[in-house]
Amino acid sequence: MSYRLGVDVGGTFTDVLLVDEESGSTWRAKTASTPSDQSVGVLNGIDKVCAEAGVDRAVIRHVLHGTTVATNAILERKGATVGLVTTEGFRQVLQIARSFVPGGLAGWIIWPKPEPLAELENTVEVPGRIASDGTIVTELDEQAARHALRKLKGVESLAISLINAFANDAHERRLAELAKEEMPGVEISLSSVVLPEMREYERALTTVANGYVQPQVARYVANLSDKINTDLSILRSDGGLAKAAAAAAAPVTMLLSGPAGGVTGAVWVAEQSGHRELLTFDMGGTSTDVALVREGQARIGRETKVGDLTVRASAVDVRTVGAGGGSIAHVPELTRALRVGPQSAGAEPGPAAYGKGGDAPTVTDANVVLGYLPAALAGGEITLDREAARAAVQTVADAMGLPSAEAAAAGIVDIVNENMLGGLRLVSVQQGYDPRDFALVAFGGAGPLHANALGRLTGAWPVIVPPSPGVLCALGDATTSARDEAARTVLRRLGDLTPDEFTAIFEELAGAASSRVAAAQVTYSADVRFVGQGNELPVTVELGEGPAGLAARFDAEHERLFSFTLDVDHELVNARATVTGERPRVTPIHLEKGDGDPSSARTGETRVYVDGDFVDAALYDRLRLRAGDVVPGPAIVTEMDSTTLILPGHAAVTDPSGSLLIRPAESLEG
């Protein structure tokens, strides 16, 4: 027998899913994350799930891992000291940047400009020049290059980004050879490998970001590989898998590794209940990640955003909001207005209710005060201290002059829900989509508690709560496929390309990507713009449609986003081919058919505070619900890794695939 294991590391919990590759059977576990060394929490989770399955760790053939190591290195500014090599005259490429200031009117007055990941004193320039068509204008001065490299003292990583290297990488490859001689042991990132596309600033920034996180990621991957002693793959930001060595060489492709796993898992479970148009809503202990899925495919963007950093790397279009179960509520003295997040209590010390020394009021504490959470979380690993939670939330009530801790807790939950609604609007309304046309898939340890309220705010029905929603990201890791991508800059007018030339460009890229991953599916995309425009839009490509079909697709996307098109020719800027391997087998859940009456799963009742008053809510054990059972609100459905709240006026139907489908009660009556 052989097993594969999905692991997702969050800010508060580490989730593990073990899959029997022959039968497709699964086992789940949840354990506390260990921020100081994520591998400790991973190993604890592996041991816990193996004990539950009754197997030895040695039978695990593949470990598929979504990690935040690279993300945290960027957010916490704890990456490597990076040296940057540029073409002579371009030493300040990172400082000049794009002269873009985010925010509204007068944003430039208050916006603190982020410091470049490679400092100016660690940036050197070398003589040599390549033209945009790839011809060598000036040969590389190797003696000057060696002299420049010797100036870089104390750097742990080296990024080489020369002008027009996307068209000809000869100078970059030679510089890498010289660097290995002059700077042995230093990790080297080449822009022609990391991002072989035009635009010198974006290419330099992405290459430097790769070098910034590379040593830390390489150490983590090597450390974990040694400890688990089996095949390790890392989830990429675009939802595919990369072998450990490939991930360590190009860690910029895994900056959104963790959130991508959740979207993959959400798509898989939603398909089991017949839904392919989705908003995904992953609320953990530290943050909430939201994304939009159309026709069963997550939207893939060409930019990855982490904090103030935006790099050019394919990623699931996930937006992150600083709102999670550990988000801290506070009342600033100046405004006396309640705020929630983005500061988080994290895993250590965690919310006050965890009893680990935390005393700040959090969203989890508010849910405890409102009666929404059971006495223990994570399968009994964490016992909740209700008195500590009430004492913490009472500080908010006192600061605002509210009559009770329950009133303060309700305010905390309302505000965090509005914060998450803002994230959902970013991926839907702001992109031209009506959230009422989508189902809302809620997961993460805290997601199902807030799912019904978010459905009410967005009008997205049904709200789908998957089985074991707290470990869905690990399921996504375990059910995803290997993926690789090849890209290059083309810069040709579509009107000048024949159908054969057009097809040949993409087929060549597909061949390059297929050499690294056994292809089960090949998809194509391109960056297109109107001739004369400065920016382009990513568009999917169907080879059979040819250049004219791509132009029509671009016009439709431009019309959707900006409400107009232009009667001018189109330009193909960048072309990409993405190769995806076979999807692993996991057996879907098939519940026993029930008669609609959930009373056999009822375990009692409790008092909860909803809409300004206490009401009686029924308690249900999710594992005892049958297909077709209807759970009317107010109700709380408990399971090992999460708790689902069903509000008054709503009801949840148990789908045969195990998901809870929450809708307004009147829609079920009709």
From TrEMBL:
GO cellular component: cytosol
The Hydantoinase A/oxoprolinase domain, residue ranges: 203-481
GO molecular function: 5-oxoprolinase (ATP-hydrolyzing) activity
A matching Pfam family: Hydant_A_N
One BP annotation, GO: glutathione metabolic process
Protein name: N-methylhydantoinase A
Domain of life: Bacteria
Domain Acetophenone carboxylase-like C-terminal as annotated: residue spans: 575-652
Occurrences of domain Hydantoinase/oxoprolinase N-terminal (ranges): 4-182
Organism (species): Paractinoplanes atraurantiacus
